[in-house]
Specification:
The chain has 274 residues and is α/β, with parallel strands linked by helices. It has two domains: 45 residues, no CATH class; 214 residues, 3-Layer(aba) Sandwich (Rossmann fold). It contains ten helices and eight strands. Strands 1, 2, 3, 4, 5, 6, 7 and 8 form an eight-stranded mixed β-sheet that branches. Helix 6 links the parallel strand 2 and strand 3. Helix 4 packs across helix 5. The N and C termini lie far apart (73 Å). Bound molecules: S-adenosylmethionine. The site of S-adenosylmethionine (SAM) has 15 residues, from helix 2.
Length: 274
């Protein structure tokens, strides 16, 4: 007798499942991966993104602007002589990831990814562990563990300047997590001349409908999305010297081409440790 079998998962889903991901719950990393055209996401991630896209058809361009900011900021620090990057809250690296940019602009740069997503860390370990790259799992709320991890010790010389990157991660930290303290703790491990590059969603210029859909989608993914104001974003760089043009919409941060108005924006900035 024939019994019904569920259809085999597509390759992207299969990769997530094989790495211990839960196919029934959307993951932020999987949603972002799908938006950026990656191949490490599940049907639940894709469905969650399509619900957001129904309200904000340009949502892909919003995250692309944030990616472009990251790329411009990293190229700036590479030109300033930085040869070490620690990127926190990484999803599956795709597009112009730090190690791809480094290879083109500053070969030999060490890039350490720290992921708060266990399936991402598991899957990426095999192809991101090399002479100049590494990845491990660590919740950003435990910043003191990062410099002590064997991969961090292998790749990063904390006595030399490093660029610490937190792109689209702080949105998932609640006020009680004290993101300002977490970043300050991380920067304490870094030497003078180190950079902090950070971006976060802002509620400025977002429609109520999109706000509600985002809040709904992210609560289904098990977390509350926190939009931060300009002043809150600036406070994350306390004790550092913010570089021009300060904390601005990411499309306004040293732009290289004009951009069109988008349904929401990230605020981003870069600062140096005196
Ligand atoms: C929308 S994704 C963005 C991924 C990547 N940073 C990017 O911009 O493409 C949000 C990321 O934040 C990470 N994240 C959320 N809470 C975290 C925490 N407490 N510690 C570390 N990472 C966290 C998730 O694992 C996920 O990879």
């Amino acid at each position: 007798m024939l019994t019904w079998q569920p259809p085999p998962p597509v390759a992207a889903d299969a990769r997530v499942l094989a790495s211990g991901g839960d196919p029934t719950v959307p993951a932020h990393s999987g949603m972002m991966d799908y938006l950026l055209g990656g191949d490490f996401n599940t049907a639940a991630d894709r469905a969650a993104v399509e619900k957001i896209r129904a309200v904000a058809p340009d949502i892909g361009e919003v995250v692309a602007e944030n990616l472009a900011f990251y790329s411009r900021a990293l190229r700036t620090v590479f030109k300033a002589g930085i040869e070490q990057v620690v990127e926190l809250g990484i999803g599956m690296p795709c597009g112009d990831a730090a190690h791809h940019l480094a290879r083109r602009v500053s070969p030999g740069t060490k890039v350490l990814y720290v992921s708060g997503d266990k399936p991402v860390a598991t899957h990426a370990k095999s192809h991101l562990t090399g002479e100049a790259t590494g990845i491990f799992y660590n919740d950003i709320r435990e910043p003191h563990r990062i410099p002590e991890h064997p991969e961090a010790r292998r790749l990063i010389d904390w006595d030399r300047p490093v660029a610490i990157v937190v792109r689209d991660v702080l949105n998932y930290l609640q006020c009680e997590d004290n993101p300002q303290y977490l970043l300050a703790r991380l920067m304490k491990s870094a030497s003078s001349g180190s950079y902090l590059i950070a971006s976060n969603t802002t509620s400025e210029s977002i429609s109520d409908l999109l706000y509600e859909q985002l809040a709904h989608s992210f609560s289904n993914a098990g977390q509350k999305l926190v939009f931060r104001s300009q002043a809150e974003m600036e406070s994350l760089f306390a004790g550092l010297t913010l570089l021009d043009p300060g904390v601005v919409g990411v499309h306004e941060w040293r732009p290289e081409k004009p951009t069109k108005p988008l349904p929401m924006q990230f605020l981003g900035g870069m600062a140096i440790k005196p």
